[in-house]
Design a protein that fits this description.
Elements lengths: L9 E2 L12 E2 L10 H6 L8 E5 L5 E5 H11 L8 H27 L2 H14 L3
Antiparallel strand pairs: 1-2, 3-4
Length: about 130
C-alpha cells in the first residue's frame, strides 16, 4: 500500500430497504471508519462498544453491545407462571439437606468433636506430651 494511501477492500453493505447505506474502504491494518450517516441511523454514539462478526463471505455485522443485550433478553423465554425465587429456595433446601447428610455421615464415621478431643488427649498421653 502506498504511504498515506487508503487503498483497501471495498466493503459492500447489504441493508434493508429504507436503511442508510454507504460504501467505504478497509484501510491499513483492517481499520474502517463508519460513515456518519450510518452511525446516526444506527444510533451509535462516540465511544459506543460494538461487536463485529463475520456473516459469511464478504459480510460483516457490526452491532452495539446494548443492541445485543436487548435482543438476547427479548429472545429469552417468558417467565409466565414461574417463580424463580421459589426455585432458588428449593435448591437451597436441597443443598442444606446434602450438607446435613454429610455432617451426619462424618459424625457417624469420626465421632463427635468431644470424642475427637478425648482421642487427641489420649494420644498425647501415650506419647508422653
Amino acid at each position: 500500500m502506498p504511504k498515506g494511501g487508503t487503498h483497501g477492500t471495498v466493503v459492500h453493505m447489504n441493508l434493508a430497504l429504507g436503511a442508510v447505506s454507504s460504501s467505504f474502504r478497509v484501510g491499513q491494518k483492517g481499520r474502517v471508519m463508519l460513515p456518519a450517516a450510518v452511525r446516526r441511523a444506527a444510533h451509535l454514539e462516540d465511544g459506543a462498544e460494538v461487536v463485529a462478526r463475520s456473516d459469511g463471505e464478504g459480510r460483516i455485522i457490526i452491532e452495539s453491545v446494548d443492541s445485543i443485550r436487548v435482543r438476547l433478553w427479548a429472545a429469552a423465554p417468558a417467565s409466565d407462571g414461574l417463580d424463580v425465587a421459589q426455585d432458588v429456595r428449593e435448591m437451597r433446601q436441597q443443598d442444606q439437606a446434602v450438607v446435613e447428610a454429610n455432617a451426619a455421615r462424618q459424625l457417624a464415621t469420626l465421632g463427635s468433636e468431644a470424642d475427637s478431643e478425648a482421642a487427641g488427649r489420649a494420644l498425647l498421653n501415650v506419647l508422653g506430651l
